[in-house]
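Good morning C.,

I know you're traveling, so I'll keep this short. The sequence:
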Amino acid sequence: MSVTLTDPKYYEVVEATWPTAAKRTIGPVTLREGQGGGSRVSAASVDGAASVSEIETAEQAMRAMGQDCLFMIRDGQDDLDAQLAARGYVVKDPVNLWVCPIEKLTDLEIPRVTTFALWSPLEIQREIWISGGIGPERQAIMERAVGPKAALLARYDDKPAGAGFVAVHDGVAMVHALEILAHQRRRGMGVWMMRQAAFWAAENGAQEMAVLCTKENAGANGLYASLGMTNCGQYHYRHLPSGA
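The tokens, ready to paste straight into the viewer:
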């Protein structure tokens, strides 16, 4: 399977399955209003090249929204990366894209009552997310997503173990907000949750599974590699430190 993050399809999948609250364009710059939902829904992006005045106007608009000056740098945007670095922007959160055909994750039967996929989320799922720093602002992103979506729940020894979110766009199911309770880790829950997401996604028209993961999260990257997923590219952010 040949997949790269230079393919705009996967950015469209990210946008559709983890949507911003609002967006608008200033020339080649797309601004996003994240409402506290994190970098992925707040970062501006650039199509093509942006002039100094367009970057400055975007910065003013981001500040007016009460947001940091933050840009997503996609694979291949070396000129934009250098342009922002020259303005004092620093790298933040390099991210890997992991992808695989859905059948890679549907070849084993999930043990009974180990995982579930449902919508809307149960209160225990919301509590698990909150314990992992996925608060109301990020949970609101899940509510905004349209199309097929599900909240994942894992159980171990008849007790809650983890929660996650999966949604489908254009034949790709993307998993977000995968969180395992600290005392339930190292028990294979992440594996079964990804497999549950795949079984659910196959029933909802998906042919591929995808997930994003910060490069520094060695445990999660190891999980996706162990499942036979392929690291197909990366993007990162650049943000302007306060006072710069």
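Safe travels,
E.
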